[in-house]
Write a structure and sequence with these properties.
- There is one protein chain.
- Helix content is 17%, strand content 42%.
- The protein is built from two helices and eight strands, in the order βαβββββββα.
- Strands 1, 2, 3, 4, 5, 6, 7 and 8 form an eight-stranded mixed β-sheet that branches.
- The longest helix has 11 residues, at 21-31.
- The two termini are 15 Å apart.
């Protein structure tokens, strides 16, 4: 049986354009130098990159995520934005949970997800028990 863990914080309404809720959230994170978790996946598979960093530069054309000593450069031209929860699964696929954040579907069909949220402690305890 799987468990669904949902954050207590309500997501912002979805924004379909750079002027929407998702773009405004990205701008706030950059302005506040907010630490973020990110997931970057290639459209045809083969690469899934996860990490933590901060939005260093942000324009409608491109963004840079500063992650320690390295930077990830992402072309945003032609991207679509979505604010709200995304569904993730535990490694054993027995549980799933929502994480609030901003999803970007890039023009080259890659996907980037950024979030300033982590699972609440009670959620982590439940996940750890299920994984063991």
């Amino acid at each position: 049986m799987s468990a669904l863990i949902v954050s207590k914080r309500l997501p912002e309404p979805a924004g379909a354009s750079p002027q929407g809720a998702a773009w405004q959230q990205l701008l706030r994170w950059q302005e506040n130098a907010q630490p973020l978790a990110f997931v970057y996946t290639r459209s045809l598979g083969g690469l899934i990159h996860t990490g933590q960093g901060k939005l260093d530069q942000l324009t409608l054309d491109a963004a840079t995520i500063e992650a320690g000593a390295s930077k990830l450069y992402i072309v945003l031209a032609g991207a679509s934005y979505e604010a709200g929860p995304q569904l993730f699964f535990t490694p054993n696929m027995l549980s799933r949970f929502h994480v609030n954040g901003v999803a970007l579907r890039l023009a080259n069909h890659d996907w980037l997800f950024l979030s300033d949220e982590s699972l609440p402690a009670i959620g982590m305890e439940n996940l750890q028990k299920r994984i063991e």
